[in-house]
Amino acid sequence: MSEAGKLVHHLLDDACNTWPDQTFVRTKDQSVTLSGLRDRAFFYARILKDVGVLPGDRIVIEAANSIDSVAVIFATLAIGAAFCPIHTSAPDMQRRYVTENSAAALSVCFSDNRVFIKKAAANHTVPVFNAREANGGPLGSLNPGIISEDIACLIYTSGSTGQPKGVTCLHRQVIFAAFAIADALEYKPADTVFVAQPLSFDYGLYQIFLCLIGGATLYLADPGAAGLTLFKALASSKATILPAVPPMLDNLAVMAKRKPGALHRLRLITNTGAAAQETSVQSLRQCLPDLKFQLMYGLTECKRAAINPPDADILRPSSCGLPLKDTEIKIIDENGHRAGPGVVGEIVIRGPHVMAGYWNDEELSKQRYFIHNATMKELRTGDFGWLDEDGYLYCQGRRDDIFKQRGYRVSCSEIEAAASAIEGVKSAVLIPPDGKRPSVLFVSFDDGEFDIIKDLGTRLEEFKLPGRCVSMSSIPTNSNGKFDRKQLEKSIRN
Amino acid sequence: MIINKETVRTALHQAVSKVLGEDVPPLKDNMSMFEELRMDSTTMLETMMELEDTLQFTVDPEDLDIEDFLTVEAYIGFLMDIKQQQPA
User: CA A158, CA A153: separation in Å to the nearest integer?
Assistant: First the structure.
């Protein structure tokens, strides 16, 4: 068990020992080797220490897809602090919320190739890293005295009530998850992994760790490259692996048909976030015969739960995989009893990848991270699905107010709470997207309508914003006095 | 056939309205496709395919740059260029 006691930043030290001159991170116009990234992380680690960050502190990092973001993440870990990655489009209100909720010591953001530290009300501009004057070493040598039971990161994700929750991930949990995923996906030193996911989502973030374990190159693309321009960016980056969410596959399927030769290097696409459209997968298979698919299922609370072996979905359409090595997935019925193969119930996950819980939220942690007999912890995902005879998982989605929009997790109540908090809004109800129809926010106003989406943009990240907004004089209620969501949904269907 | 800017603007307006399934305000040059018109990767793709049909052209996926789709003006410029290269 070489992973016992390992800390997340040791991944960078280990990779550096094995492949020091291997290109680790590339962007459109920059690249850095493993040892170069480690020197940069070492440099930022000293600066963070100098401004007073202590082991056990938390740091909010605006996780832009840049070399500096990756370096600051490792710098944070190397001095024994935990990082809370936030989306670059997070408005001030969200940033304040995460900073206060996590009681962060400071926050780090990036602009025009410069790094800035915000501590209390003060702003510090960090000196520019100069590779020629670098004076680094193994990150492990900074030895802040933490152990693998300490926190590596808090990942804020939409929960079923109000504000996002900080999923608390210990070093040992991140390490276990990263190695178990690496075992199933097998990234190799010759691979270039195209990451258009923001590093604030675990899907993007873990690509860093997977590349380190496999010795692969991480290509950090602009998250804007996920759409029409994905094809060109993929071809020009010479990517061999694409971690995708369903809308990316739909885009790529249309474009790849036109010029399949340009993507001949692409050997693997993984998918998570929501089920991939089978027609898109099929179409990509037809024009790129050497390409394999590994469809997966997971949630931030345990990072990843299941991964299909390459192309296993051909024989088992719509399956999302087998449990990670040394973990278990079971289905429980409404009484909490284990259900047999073929029976739909709640997906429950056990194993060392099940994270610690929700930061400072005992109630919700107890509910989701259920503890049997005061000892045995399991993650009750809130997702429903079934297992076949061979243990492959089939996911059917949620039965609460969380939904996936453009592949990202969003909750109705979070958006409704944000909308209702806007002055002049009487009430707000969100109807999740359905097929091609976008999510629709129904709003009633005290007096006088206004552009609520613009206002919401100051409170929520871009990817959470509703697709459409419909204003009403009053929102219909049902016989229980609750908002009549069914009627609202029907009104947009017509 | 030389295509003029206003014809292209009308075609773009029709395509966006059709894809979003709602009344879209008149398209001004400086409008942002993503923030103001609330387009995303899926609706952008559908809009492009719609325009390929109505304006009769085919895009080469390696000619698509994000800068061409950020604003209404850039998008119109892109469509005018491609129509110049593929007149019919």
Answer: 16
Q: What is the CATH number of the domain that holds B56?
A: 1.10.1200.10
Chain A residue with CA closest to B38: the answer is A467
Which has the closest alpha carbon to A350: A391, A380, A388?
A: A380
pTM reported for the whole predicted model: 0.90
Q: What's the ipTM?
A: 0.89
What is the domain extent for residue B75?
5-85
Going along A146-237, which residue ranges are E strands? 151-157, 165-170, 192-195, 217-220
Record: fold of A1-147:
Rossmann fold (3.40.50)
pLDDT in tens, A259-272: 988 999 999 999 99
- Contact assessment for residue A426 and residue A445, using Cβ atoms and an 8 Å cutoff: yes
Which residue ranges of chain A lie beneath pLDDT 70?
1, 160-161, 494
Give chain B positions within 8 Å (CB) of A226. Answer: 41
Work out how many domains chain B is built from and give that number. Answer: 1
Which of A224, A247, A465 has its CB closest to that of B42?
A247
Contact residues, chain A, for B44 at CB < 8 Å: 227-228
CATH 3.40.50.980 domain extents, chain A: 1-147
Task: Kindly report the CATH class assigned to A410-493.
Answer: alpha beta
B40/A247 CB distance under 8 A: yes
